[in-house]
Design goal:
CATH topology of the largest domain: Muramoyl-pentapeptide Carboxypeptidase, domain 2
Order of helices and strands: HHHHEEHEHHEHEHEHH
Distance between the termini: 77 Å
Number of strands: 6
Radius of gyration: 38 Å
CATH architecture of the largest domain: 2-Layer Sandwich
Strand content: 5-15%
CATH class of the largest domain: Alpha Beta
Strand order of the largest sheet: 3-4-6-5
Shape: elongated
Bound molecules: zinc ion
Length: about 300
């Protein structure tokens, strides 16, 4: 059978079906009118229900259909909104960098209170103060970091390592004494005041330029470390702290691989609180605090 023949058959059958349906509807209406006139409303009521059900069904179907298409549109709009500018999408590397910068800025905005530099060129803001918490060892830290700090130390103990808290908050007066004593030591050895200051250099921060004055920096080592010269960074506790501190909002502040950025080579035991989100981000992207702050500028 060719296509034309098939089409003729279908058409004939459809017309016959249509006529049958029309006849049935007419017959139904006649029956409806007759019964209603005779005072029997049952058929009328059934009919009204059937029509109502049909209308409801059509409305529901139309809603589902329009919702589906709306969702599709919403999706289209969102993708256009979040898309990076056309020039950036051309280069996936630039796009990734921009995305990373944006992420860093968002993290910075949420954790600003902990994300600032304190060093020789960035003295602590005058009058900087915070609520203190005194640790069992007698040293103070910023009260806001106490929960994360103790959680980290507990986890360290649970992992089977013993730590020693060497330093935490140092007030400006103590820092001044530390600095002056260090300078005096070299002056005693015959150096001029300026030469002595240069010699002290970064091993002791100038007053107002030490992170320890923020209450956010803590010097921590394995319990077996006897002194600065004895520190090796390979002992269990030091390894554990370096590998896990970010989970509790801390970063190893002056790691060996960042000396060229931080300029500090002899404080591998210093940990600095930056907030969990920022710490995770810095570790994941191998950034020091300096590099992170550079990124969000
Ligand atoms: Zn320190």
């Amino acid at each position: 059978m060719d296509f034309k023949g098939l089409w003729t058959v279908i058409k004939k059958k459809a017309i016959r079906l249509f006529k049958k349906v029309r006849k049935a509807i007419k017959r139904y209406i006649r029956k409806l009118v007759k019964h209603t006139k005779a005072g029997d409303y049952s058929i009328l009521i059934y009919t009204l229900f059937a029509v109502l059900a049909l209308v409801l069904f059509i409305v529901m179907f139309a809603n589902i259909f329009s919702l589906g298409s709306k969702k599709k549109n919403d999706f289209k709009i969102t993708t256009t909104e979040v898309a990076t500018p056309p020039d950036a999408t051309e280069d996936p590397q630039i796009a990734a960098q921009m995305q990373m910068k944006q992420q860093a800025q968002d993290i910075y905005n949420r954790n600003k209170d902990y994300l600032f530099l304190v060093d020789e060129s960035h003295p602590l803001a005058e009058g900087y103060s915070f609520e203190h918490h005194t640790l069992n060892c007698g040293l103070d830290i910023d009260k806001r970091i106490y929960n994360d700090f103790s959680e980290m130390l507990n986890a360290c103990n649970m992992a089977g390592y013993e730590y020693n808290i060497i330093n935490a908050y140092i007030d400006e007066a103590t820092q001044t004494t530390l600095y002056n004593d260090a300078v005096a030591h070299y002056v005693d050895q015959g150096l001029l005041e300026e030469e002595a200051q240069a010699q002290v250099g970064k091993s002791v921060d100038r007053p107002g330029c030490s992170e320890h004055e923020t209450g956010l920096a803590i010097d921590l080592t394995d319990v077996e470390v006897l002194g600065e010269e004895d520190f090796k960074s390979t002992r269990g506790t030091d390894q554990w702290l370096m590998n896990n501190c970010h989970k509790y909002g801390f970063i190893n502040r002056y790691p060996a691989n960042k000396v060229s950025v931080t300029g500090v080579s002899d404080e591998q035991w210093q940990y600095r609180y930056v907030g969990r989100e920022a710490a995770e981000f810095m570790v994941a992207n191998n950034l020091s605090l300096e590099e992170f702050l550079q990124l969000v500028q």
